[in-house]
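Reviewer has doubts. Consider these tokens.
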Amino acid sequence: MFTGIITGVGRISAVQALGESSTHGKRLTIQAPAGYLDDVGLGDSIALNGACMTVTTFEVAAQKFTIDISAESLDKTAGLDGLGTVNLEKALRANDRLGGHIVSGHVDGIGSISHFAQVGESWELRVLAPPSLAKYLAYKGSITVNGVSLTVNRVVDLHGGCEISINLIPHTVENTALGTLNQGSRVNLEIDTVARYVERMMSAPAV
């Protein structure tokens, strides 16, 4: 489990294919910030752009680690198939503060950035979400974008899904990889866990 509060910005520095066919996954090498791996062990969970991954090897001195990502996960996520910056979050401990919201690290869908511009001291981020996620998105509700816990400021229903608007304070832009996004960028989305259960309770047949 995670909270959506990013604890570091890393970089995918190498990508190695684990086989020759499209059914094979990839091994990613991630360069972490200084000191980030000091309390990390083999098999620990670290979310990369909101996708929960398992540490398969790590080098504390070099501050880098590897993860193996399956072809299925590559197909269902964005930004994990090539070199570039990624948001990092270590798994939640039982005694940690829940600064964002409860995040599972399971990507529900891929959105695309429709608008990203500075407004005053903050930034407005608009994301086009797929139709399958539209019903889970609500004004003042929570959404995870590339692993970052954010609050929805506006929802506009469209024929092909919906567009959500999010306000980013300068701290978020400066301390996550969201600042590298552009119009058209694909992002990983995870809906609020509570919304899943509400939808199930409303749609389940009466016994």
